[in-house]
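[Automated response] Your request has been received and processed.

Submitted sequence:
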Amino acid sequence: MPKYLIVLDEKANENILNDYDIISYESLPYLKTILIAYMDDEEANSLRENPLIKSVEHDGEDEVDAIDTRHDSATLTDAFNHMNIDKFHEEGITGAGFKVAVMDTGIQPHINLKVAGGVNAYNSAVPWNADLVSSHGTQVAGVINAQGVNNDLLGIAPDADLYCIRIDDGTGGLNRTTWSSQIAGINWAVANGMDAVNCSFSSLTDSPARKEAFRLASQSGIAIFCSGGNTQPSGDITSFTVPYPAKYPFTIGNANIKSNKVRNWNSCIGRGLNFATVGTSVRLTTRDTSITTSERYSTGTGTSYAAPANMGIYILYRQKYGEGKEKTLQRMAVNAEDLGSPYWYGAGLPKYPTKNYLNVQVRG
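Generated structure:
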């Protein structure tokens, strides 16, 4: 039976499906306006005629945003250095007390990672860290959480509690991450009190149900950092290509720059970008299927690795100032290094703060 995603009007609830004899569906306790239902096309068409139902769509999928992987021997990333992360760490600000999640293709146990737990939102019968067919989630995790074991790679917020939300279909290939698993994953993030979630996947096709889920999660206080996409055509600096979910006004979109602080040629441009950092030739923890706990590293390029770096410094700002999401993002923007057009770089490169930010309100 096909899987559909349903967005309800706020005046409706799941009981509305009883009128259509639809009994196979999943409700989401923290995303009450969204249902995941199993039904045929005729039933779906009938639902679309109900004014209390905002949208009905087939489940779809996105792809992870990485373009290159190879071996390397660096121990700190350029993002770490360019953002002056060592200054935070010297103050004892390393992310302790905050909960972050990598919503991706799963995380393999690694000698240089410390994962607090997780969930497989695509298939609960398979553990979030078992039978992995992609290294992507393990790689993204290291940008945030690498522990510096054996004087190797050190993450930006190594003492934040890291959780894995696995959302891929387990077949490898294009590393498909379904919209329904993203919705279930973000519901888990809200239920388990995540402060921030990294989403290094994208598509040019939007999903109304996924959009509603991410809006509700953002409204609950979660900062959702998204990769800005790697599909800018060569030589094209005018087409706006930033994909979803980075394009949403309530997510934080991230561009990829090189070590010289210039946009990587295929990092997407347009509305939806908030920040930029180095996602080119990034040192990464990676998967090794020959052993239970990986000891491997690789180097990757893509907005996939810019997004978690910026999420990491966001957590350090949160810890340093003790402020909520919106004030923290504003403070990051005020202190970001201006790199040029906001359509290319957003507010620029986040860095250790050197400017005070006061939310002054002008009263009439």
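Summary generated for your ticket: Confidence is low (pLDDT under 50) at residues 68-74. The radius of gyration is 20 Å.
If you did not submit this request, please reply to this message.
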